[in-house]
Specification:
Length: about 1100
């Protein structure tokens, strides 16, 4: 095998810390190095008193980390006894950290100072405590309490004040926990640090190819004597105006600049006076605001939009983004007139010399734009047959009003309420099998965009026909990208050559180019290409197409012409406005929003195979403008609804855990169904085995789906249930962070945990409670931020959220009067509480049943398994909704298949029928694409790695083997799909990828086997994997060498029963993959 790096092996906590610190050393080594003449207690000392065991744990269990801080000089004598206590030393260090921050004019960012504020005129310390009168505690800092305990006091007596002071002030300390986890005690929070740059081998310097950006030359003549003066003259006016946030020494590389594709999606069209969709660039576009080609000011302004870096304006290369105005990676430069005027008034501007000749080209571009008929072009390249406005009723409903959750059934819409009756759609539906096929293909959209750009952008800007073709090919690739894929500026800049207009005017044709001029040319070219995509391609797509993903086609992007989408969406929105929402006057809506934390939500429509689905966006942060006392306005991004409801979600999660414990303790009298597959598996293993032992094994299955369950929940009843469920009068909210390494990449996660207000504990105890079976090799960081929330505040926020949820549709506000808001972070848990209460009140017969029964519920899907037919019929009668008694052997339920005879559980792959695997992927083109392949495949395998599918006490051994085999077949299909995007991958690399995937599958199952029974050996898992990849790769013609290797590996002997392995890979277990395209 080639020397590729393994990606699945877990990274230890020590290795993780070395990603952030250049020096990671145990505390014992530090103190023994600094005090060589002092004897420290050792772990193997048999006569050591018990009271010194804590000191040994302290020396061996703490890691001392630093970046560039020098180790203390060895002290060749015993340190003098400390003159101050450990408490005084700790507070002295805190005081010094605050004073260092005051010198740097910034707040100290050290865990020891968190929870304290420096005394000032606004903060007055009422009394002098042990910390002194200079700083005051606003949050309890448990790290300070830990450092003041007796063990640290004993260490102080051994190492002295000087070394203790140095350790706390200049180093970061991490304390060891169980299962290779640590928590941070001192230093800058690890969650705020960036990983150290990974050292790379320095490649040999490549000779610069002057054909990249210069005029081609065959034999360069010697430079003239006056070349230096001529070149200086040409560059003297190119010095950019100083901009406050510019930092050219830290300019972003083209590979780090990604085009903001998120702006493409869900755009609303522009309308004319007749309320018809108006094609073409928006009115606020630079071409429509500065449209006089003979006006020099108009042309120069467009030049500043195109090349902002050359004029000292805000740009994506050297400027930072104001996070108070946008959450996007880069700012929107559609309108920047105020910035241009402000810069002109302060410093003035002068057009750089090499851009002077472009004024005529820009004038020509304005004329071309004014002559371009975008409406005719989009209808020519992206035709929609019979879109003429006639109306007649359409038999099949194309709008599915099933509210927002993915698991709900469609709600019938009557003709009287809002029938979708459009003859154009009826005509198209005869030729199209689903609504998603009404979109314009990628080929059509690409042809329209490329034709528009070729008509508007003058040929001078491209330099040559070849450059034009290169950029057009990248535009085509940009349009074909899937939903979450990225596209960088670096990709487009490849293979562009011979840009004549980039050279200075005074430079002769065959003159040799210096390095600084090459850099300047690349800089200008990068600005031009970014402007083409950000200000031409993306606005054209937004103004002509409604761009969205779809549940059926997964990540494939669909392009609907705006006039077609208007025909589809208007009836759906009208029905929503009359059935679920109530119109709210603008004055009242403004008054409501001004006096509460919660903002308004937005709504969009998601195309489906047989209709559209309304989706609420409660994560979006809207701009809010406030008027100050002096009359000025202040615009900022306000918090999203989900972030405001975050503390409420943490509190309800705490109550849910307590509620589940109460159910387990009193399961006989409160047989409430589990809320997830994990809880289902944990609670019902023994119960399912009891059902299986019944003789004869005749089982009855009743499946019920609550129709539009989120929309039919009673708001008043739900609030009454939540008020009853809240057990505490006040809750404590504690924030912390977790840093771990996933697939060789450090990741940070921030959490908030709720608990009763009286349960404030030390962070070490809190961290030990957080460690579970899955948490390993992680670093926990206390953010020393606590919040108190009373029960009345929780109920007040919930009341506002449920009964007064404002939705903005178009320019009007509406109040949701039916059901609960969807897209909210609370939706699922509120639904679970509501139906849990329903089960306890309405399904009481389960406590007095004659047979063995299991009730399972996942959100709104109920499954009742019993040995008594009367119980099943009674359950259906109580639910009195669409339900059925199933007489088949294979029973589908929530993405799984239950065997009605053995109760074995397998995954349901029928949801992939007709779906191309490529549409489910997100391909990484920019950074480390080879590593990204494994990362994506591992993530998908981890999501399917539930212990329920691999437990031999829950499933038969045969079913466990089939689950492993089918999971690896899907992984093999994903592998082929990813490899097909790679430019001719080596056969050895493909073998390495296959080996890594099989090793990772073994790692997943071995990890699950700690808590369940799974005796499948690694050899057996790999044997199944080789056959899975053989099945997938054999249908493709590019894996000849890999297939030969797979056949050799599949012949290896295994310890497992070969007969049951062969039975697991039988053809009958492959038929579910026949309809999957890859």
């Amino acid at each position: 095998m080639p020397p590729f790096t393994s990606q699945y092996e877990p990274v230890s906590a020590l290795s993780l810390l070395k990603r952030f610190y250049s020096s990671v050393v145990p505390l014992r080594i530090i103190v023994e190095f600094a005090l060589p003449c002092v004897s420290f207690p050792q772990k193997d000392t048999s006569h050591l008193p018990k009271e010194h065991l804590h000191l040994i744990e302290l020396l061996d269990g703490i890691l001392v980390c630093s970046n560039g801080n020098s180790l203390p000089q060895p002290l060749h004598h015993i340190p003098s006894p400390p003159s101050a206590s450990q408490t005084d030393v700790v507070y002295r260090v805190i005081r010094m950290l605050f004073k260092q921050g005051i010198k740097r004019k910034e707040k100290p960012n050290n865990l020891l100072t968190h929870g304290y504020i420096w005394g000032s005129d606004r903060v007055v310390v009422s009394a002098v405590g042990p910390a002194g009168a200079e700083f005051v505690s606003v949050f309890p800092n448990s790290h300070v309490s830990t450092l003041r305990n007796d063990t640290w006091q004993d260490l102080l007596h051994i190492i002295g004040e000087e070394l203790m002071h140095l350790l706390l002030l200049s180093f970061s300390l991490f304390v060891r926990l169980e299962k290779d986890n640590y928590y941070q005690l001192t230093g800058t929070p690890l969650s705020d640090l960036k990983p150290l740059p990974i050292p790379t081998k320095i490649d040999k310097k490549r000779k610069i190819d002057l054909d990249d950006l210069a005029v081609p030359d065959f034999k360069r003549p010697p430079l003239p004597r006056n070349h230096k003066r001529a070149y200086s003259d040409s560059m003297c006016s190119e010095k950019p105006i100083k901009y406050p946030r510019l930092n050219s020494s830290h300019a972003s590389s083209p590979n780090a600049i990604q085009f903001v594709r998120s702006r493409l999606f869900y755009a609303r069209p522009a309308y004319n006076i007749k309320n018809e969709v108006q094609f073409g660039l928006r009115r606020i576009h630079i071409f429509n605001r500065y449209k006089n080609p003979d006006d020099l000011d108009h042309c120069s302004t467009i030049l500043q939009y195109m090349f902002p870096r050359q004029f000292g304006l805000h740009n994506v290369f050297t400027c930072t983004v104001d996070r108070k105005k946008t959450i996007q990676p880069f700012q929107d430069y559609t309108v920047r007139d105020k910035e241009i005027l402000s810069a002109a008034r302060q410093k003035g501007y002068k057009i750089p010399t090499r851009l002077m000749d472009l004024l005529n080209v820009v004038s020509r571009m304005i004329k071309l734009h004014s002559r371009c008929s975008y409406s005719a072009m989009v209808k020519y390249y992206c035709p929609v047959p019979r879109l003429d406005g006639s109306v007649e009723y359409f038999h099949e409903e194309i709008i599915e009003h099933d509210s927002w959750p993915m698991s709900q059934a469609p709600l019938t819409v009557t003709n009287e309420a809002a029938s979708i009756a459009i003859s154009q759609l009826a005509y198209l539906s005869k030729k199209k099998s689903s609504l998603t096929e009404l979109d314009s293909s990628h080929i059509e959209v690409s042809a329209f965009i490329r034709a528009s750009i070729s008509r508007v952008i003058p040929k001078t800007f491209w330099g040559s026909t070849r450059n034009f073709q290169v950029v057009m090919s990248y535009i085509d690739s940009f349009i074909r990208l899937r939903r979450y894929e990225l596209f960088s500026l670096h990709q487009v800049l490849q293979n562009i050559k011979e840009m004549t207009w980039l050279s200075p005017k005074s430079m002769q044709l065959c003159q040799k180019t210096c390095h600084s001029d090459i850099t300047k040319r690349k800089e200008i070219l990068a600005e031009f290409i970014y402007w083409i995509f950000d200000s031409i391609v993306i606005p054209l797509l937004r103004s002509h197409f409604y761009i969205s993903e779809c549940a059926k086609t997964r990540n494939r992007v669909l392009y609907f012409r705006h006039d077609l989408w208007k025909k589809i969406s208007e009836p759906a929105l009208n029905h929503l406005k009359h059935s679920m929402f109530q119109d709210v006057p603008l004055i009242e809506a403004t008054r409501i929003l001004a006096r509460r934390q919660l903002s308004f939500s937005f709504i969009r429509l998601l195309p489906k195979e047989a209709g559209v689905r309304p989706i609420m966006n409660l994560r979006r942060r809207g701009l809010r403008t406030e008027i100050r006392d002096n009359g000025s306005t202040h615009t900022y991004l306000q918090s999203s609804i989900n972030s405001v409801l975050g503390p409420v979600h943490s509190i309800l999660q705490f109550e849910k855990v307590w509620y589940n414990c109460a159910l387990l303790d009193n399961a006989a009298t409160r047989p409430i169904a589990p809320w997830s597959l994990c809880i289902l598996y944990n609670r019902n293993v023994s119960k399912a085995k009891n059902v299986q032992k019944v003789s004869p094994p005749k089982l009855y299955f009743a499946k019920v789906d609550i129709q539009a369950c989120f929309d039919t929940i009673s708001q008043d009843q739900l609030l009454a249930i939540i008020e009853e469920m809240l057990t505490e009068d006040e809750y404590l909210l504690q924030k912390y962070a977790s840093v771990c390494c996933k697939l060789d990449c450090p990741r940070r996660r921030f959490y908030t945990k709720a608990r009763p207000s009286f349960e404030l504990m030390q962070f070490e105890q809190f961290a030990n409670e957080l460690i579970n079976d899955t948490m390993r090799h992680s670093i926990l960081v206390d953010r020393v931020v606590y919040g108190l929330m009373e029960k009345s505040e929780v109920l007040n926020l919930l009341t506002q959220h449920i009964t007064n949820n404002l939705v903005k549709i178009g320019k009007r506000y509406y109040r949701q009067v039916q059901g609960i808001p969807q897209g909210s972070v609370l939706s699922t848990i509120l639904c679970n509480f509501f139906y849990g209460h329903f089960e306890r009140r309405c399904i009481k017969f389960l406590t007095e049943q004659s047979g063995v029964s299991v009730l399972i519920r996942i959100v709104d899907d109920f499954l009742f398994i019993t040995t008594d037919r009367n119980n099943a019929q009674e359950f259906l009668q109580i639910m009195h909704d669409v339900a059925r008694l199933v007489g088949t052997r294979e029973f589908p339920y929530c993405g799984n298949i239950l065997n009605t005879e053995t109760l074995d559980v397998r995954q349901d792959y029928s949801r992939y029928d007709g779906v191309h695997i490529k549409d489910t992927l997100t391909v990484e083109y920019n950074k480390n694409p080879g590593t990204a392949i494994l990362s994506k495949i591992f993530n998908s395998m981890r999501l399917k790695g539930n212990a329920m599918f691999f437990d031999e006490e829950f499933n038969s051994r045969y079913t466990v083997l089939v689950n492993i085999f089918q999971n690896l077949i899907l992984a093999a299909m994903r592998t082929h799909a990813y490899i097909s995007f790679s430019p001719k991958p080596l056969g050895e690399y493909i073998k390495f990828v296959v080996s890594q995937i099989l090793d990772f599958q073994c790692t997943i199952i071995r990890g699950l086997a700690r808590n369940c029974k799974c005796s499948i050996t690694n050899e057996g898992i790999k044997w199944l994997g080789y056959h899975a990849f053989l099945y997938v790769f054999a249908k493709k013609g590019r894996y000849i060498d890999v297939l030969r290797w797979l056949r050799e590996m599949s012949k290896q002997s295994v310890k497992d029963d070969k007969g049951i392995l062969v039975k697991a890979v039988h053809y009958r277990n492959l038929h579910v993959f026949q309809k999957i395209r890859y």
